[in-house]
């Protein structure tokens, strides 16, 4: 049937200088979901507090050498999960392979992430406009992987008030954020209700980083 052609539709879209979107890049979402299950069995999702003391609507966990931690003391990468007092779970091989493949395709063949932040969006969860600048090596890109329900992603410039582009990120999309886009302000609009065949009523985003 002709529709089979669209089953794993792939396309590369340049979104901004240094930022490239690979639509349909994820080929085995089930393997990623299994790996997410392994990680969250040891370091469960939790709602961290912002430095201002607010509960984040996005639930987070992580894996790899370090995890991103937020509390009243501020934001940082920590080798210990503050909830379990244990090291973060090891980065699953399927995670590392996907992140390296996408980075290489975008022109970063040396990219070797030491941390993966896992964000879970329930309906209504959002991520306010921010920059990712807690990593020491800002020449390394960030690789992001979208799974589950679609999200409206906001993408601005190097200062908070520059005009923002809206981008719809759907299940299977992978974005490599490098070069001038690495320090761009970005955020995610409140997740709209829906039901994804594999993930149900959530969105999961993986972000791979080189933190040191
Ligand atoms: C652009 N996550 O975890 S992914 C984050 O969908 C974060 O969960 C969002 O922003 C999410 O920090 C957005 C896209 C993304 C991730 C990191 C970036 C875009 C980025 C870092 C620099 C520039
Ligand atoms: Fe971010």
Write the layout of secondary structure elements.
Layout: E1 11-16, E2 19-23, H1 29-42, E3 59-64, E4 67-71, E5 74-78, H2 93-105, E6 115-122, E7 127-130, E8 142-148, E9 151-155, E10 165-169, E11 174-177, E12 186-188, E13 202-209
Antiparallel strand pairs: 1-2, 2-11, 3-6, 4-5, 6-13, 7-12, 8-11, 8-13, 9-10, 9-12
Bound molecules: N-(carboxycarbonyl)-S-(naphthalen-2-ylmethyl)-L-cysteine and fe (iii) ion.
Give structural notes.
The protein has 212 residues and is mainly β. 13% of the residues lie in helices and 33% in strands. It has helices at residues 29-42, 93-105; strands spanning 11-16, 19-23, 59-64, 67-71, 74-78, 115-122, 127-130, 142-148, 151-155, 165-169, 174-177, 186-188, 202-209. A hairpin with a 2-residue loop joins strand 4 (67-71) and strand 5 (74-78). The radius of gyration is 16 Å and the shape is globular. The protein binds N-(carboxycarbonyl)-S-(naphthalen-2-ylmethyl)-L-cysteine and fe (iii) ion. Fe (iii) ion binds next to loops. N-(carboxycarbonyl)-S-(naphthalen-2-ylmethyl)-L-cysteine (MD3) binds next to strand 6, strand 8, strand 11, strand 12 and strand 13.
